[in-house]
Write a sequence for this structure.
């Protein structure tokens, strides 16, 4: 609860106790009680005092006419304005303290309903003729923590910039039904927003659970693959790659049937019925010349145009004897 409202409630408590005491037996006593409560400098809320049986008893037809207007006066202090007092007949005359109090309470209502708050508008609503008197009233309201405002007398038109208003006006009973309806609608809108938020949270959680399950399945598959690899001795089986080991560590495959360096082949590996020498075991230069040197390109031979100094092949294929 706002501190200003708390202080106002505390200031009203003595008057509520008097209204509920055994002394409050006459309309005159209740009328004096209302006058003192509305004149006190710290009382700004009066609904609790209005609800007491002794104050409500002033509505009785047996109440003397001179005291019947005090209940209406207290209602104006609770939720009315200065203009309501001016237009309502048969009300008690206000003293100086009550006049200041009602104008301050009216200033609260006007500050909350009129934007911008011009000097002339306030002077007409509060029956004030001098600008200095209005500025004094606004200054009193500021120092009493009723409003937070800044005077702007040099603007055109002169105005008062109110930024906050203390919650010190009581609610008229006729407005309670409308307020309950507005609050019910607001509660319904809040419930719809909360439902939408909860549905979105549930969707996010479901999507997250699906992602975790998918990641867990991938992790399980990787772990199973690693376990199978370890069970096979820690080495990959080349047959699983669709190839076989060939001679000298090469792999069969490719367009030529082997993958590897041509220097890794030997005549023994390619056992096609030839040896390095001729059929009789002697070196056959003509036979050797007809074979391609494995280390040289096509068209070269052991006995080339370079003569006897030319480099001989490492091995020449010949037919086995």
């Amino acid at each position: 609860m706002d501190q200003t409202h708390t202080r106002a409630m505390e200031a009203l408590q003595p008057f509520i106790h008097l209204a509920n005491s055994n002394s409050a037996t006459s309309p005159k006593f209740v009328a004096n009680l209302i006058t003192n409560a509305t004149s006190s400098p710290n009382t700004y809320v009066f609904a609790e005092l209005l609800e007491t049986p002794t104050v409500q008893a002033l509505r009785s037809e047996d109440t003397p006419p001179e005291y019947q207007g005090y209940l209406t006066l207290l209602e104006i202090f609770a939720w009315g304005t200065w203009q309501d007092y001016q237009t309502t007949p048969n009300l008690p005359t206000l003293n100086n303290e009550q006049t200041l109090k009602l104008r301050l309470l009216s200033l609260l209502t006007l500050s909350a309903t009129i934007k911008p708050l011009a000097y002339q508008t306030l002077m007409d609503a509060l029956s004030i003729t001098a600008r200095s008197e209005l500025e004094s009233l606004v200054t009193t309201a500021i120092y009493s923590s009723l409003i937070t405002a800044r005077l702007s007398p040099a603007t055109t038109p002169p105005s008062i910039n109110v930024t906050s208003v203390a919650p010190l006006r009581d609610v008229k009973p006729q407005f309670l039904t409308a307020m309950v309806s507005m609050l019910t609608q607001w509660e319904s809108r809040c419930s719809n927003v909360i439902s939408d938020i909860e549905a979105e949270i549930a969707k996010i959680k479901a999507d997250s659970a699906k992602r975790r399950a998918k990641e867990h399945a991938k992790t399980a598959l990787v772990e199973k693959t690693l376990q199978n690899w370890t069970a096979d001795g820690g080495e990959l089986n080349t047959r699983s790659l669709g190839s076989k080991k060939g001679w000298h560590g090469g792999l069969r495959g490719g367009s030529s049937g082997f993958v590897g360096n041509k220097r890794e082949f030997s005549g023994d590996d390619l056992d096609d019925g030839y040896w390095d020498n001729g059929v009789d075991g002697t070196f056959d230069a003509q036979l050797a010349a007809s074979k391609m040197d494995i280390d040289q390109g096509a068209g070269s031979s052991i006995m080339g145009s370079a003569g006897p100094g030319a480099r001989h092949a490492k091995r020449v294929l010949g037919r086995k004897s």
The radius of gyration is 55 Å. Confidence is low (pLDDT under 50) at residues 236-265, 267-279, 291-321. Residues 171-204 form one domain. The chain has three domains: 3-170, 171-204, 245-321.
